[in-house]
């Protein structure tokens, strides 16, 4: 009797997991409903909006869309930590005013020089090592580095509702790409393990690389200077270069995602989604003005463009995943 | 009785098609056997060389590897045909010595200026139109343009044995990419229809593009000048940018593919394949010196590097597919 009951329970749990509602960390409101309705309409071959699986391309910004980005892009935090490490071995780094300020945490001074200053920081922290060595260093850092205000590992500051959205789209035969202003090689160091997105589904900013044969072993070496910035109008260009198809779903959180959403939603059916950071208790609250992830034009035009604005505070039951 | 017999035949044909030998246009010799053995060893989970499907990346050069490339790259022939067309509308093109020679078919004079001359021809034939408009023009051309010596459409000058190889790898859960010195947008105009390879599985040379909004409609516009040349050491770099994983199978035909094969076969298990153009009757015979697709270093090092050299004349039963 007990055994039969156990089997019954197992069967029922199977039934429930098959039919469990998608996006469990989303409040059951208009935002969740809009997403589910869109996916239903493009996956139902009897509907006029049906899209065949090979054209179900979804693109997601990373910083501020898949994980947090305050008080500074996590990759910039990585760069500063690496600089400090390098300065221990090579104190001559401290003779550069930009690097000295950066190492001391005085970002305002360090970045006052604009793009060339940022370039100097990136060169000193990201260049002159092989791609595989760089990615090993990034993984080591993500494994241990702790966010200054939440006390969480940066690696664990992904948004649980967005991870569910990625998984939900994939389970509906979408191919999901990250399209981020962050570095291509930086993102790929963790995207597969963290988001389940393999390297070929990552589009990002890129620096120069060279192909070299060292002692008979060929390697790809990251060299100095940025080659391509995958932000703003760079996002549709990055999508064209890497994917070659117009997506039907785009998610972002800042005006750097505006053109990606504009490009995606210029054909129908399509879906544009903007994360609005409204939750200062559970995450951060900011839109415009903001030193990072400014969202102004996107908010102004979202209604006219038919884009969904997700209110983190209202729409999400949880922000970060529970630690295992 | 007749009906039963018909059903029996249908069943048997099903059985035979399931178990038909792969690569039917390849002679049953060492080359075919080497490919089949490799695929068997990396797809059998009980073997030490087993590679999980997500890491079964195969890369193919296009010109001279998937289709012919003599007497000139087909894309260059396209450029010349487009130039002639444009010169009809705009005779001022004839005032440029390079373009005038190119339009008159005097390639030796036209290309005497080296890269800047080629750049001028590419700019005038490939730039200042949207990606989708460009690809429409390429498809129109491929639909009708005839090769000067074979009388076949360029579009039909793909190698049947190589198409079978692409299909065979895909049926063994490889993901197959084109990695070509040819233009990214040019290749994508026909790769899906011709080879069954979607745009995101095409890596190629690229020119500049911009993102523009014209009368409210966003478009990607091809602008002037080449940005990235996917040839020689550019091939492993293109693979790193687009795929982010080292392939386990690489096929090429010229020294422009050397680094791609070198990179691919620097880890084990892996397979490097070079097409040797030995068949002047059915295709063309050339290796070194050659004005196109020179193969010298590759032939010299193939044995030491463990690369398979495919002898077109001996190894292939057919070259081009039969016209439907």
How would you characterize the overall build of this protein?
Two copies of one chain form a homodimer. Chain A is of the alpha/beta class. Chain A has two domains: 23-72 and 153-315, Rossmann fold; 74-144, no CATH class. Helix content of chain A is 43%, strand content 18%. Chain A is built from 13 helices and nine strands. Chain A has helices at 2-19, 30-43, 74-89, 97-103, 107-110, 114-126, 131-144, 160-171, 184-195, 234-242, 258-264, 297-305, 312-315, and strands at residues 57-60, 129-130, 175-183, 202-214, 217-228, 249-252, 271-278, 285-286, 308-311. The radius of gyration of chain A is 21 Å and the shape is globular. The relative contact order of chain A is 0.15. The interface between A and B is medium-sized, with 31 and 31 residues. Chains A, B: It holds the Pfam family HAD. Chains A, B: One of its GO terms (molecular function) is hydrolase activity.
Quick tags:
homodimer, 324 residues, alpha/beta, Rossmann fold, nine-stranded mixed sheet, 43% helix, hydrolase activity (chains A, B), HAD-like_sf (chains A, B), hydrolase (chains A, B), HAD_sf (chains A, B), Haloacid dehalogenase-like hydrolase (chains A, B)
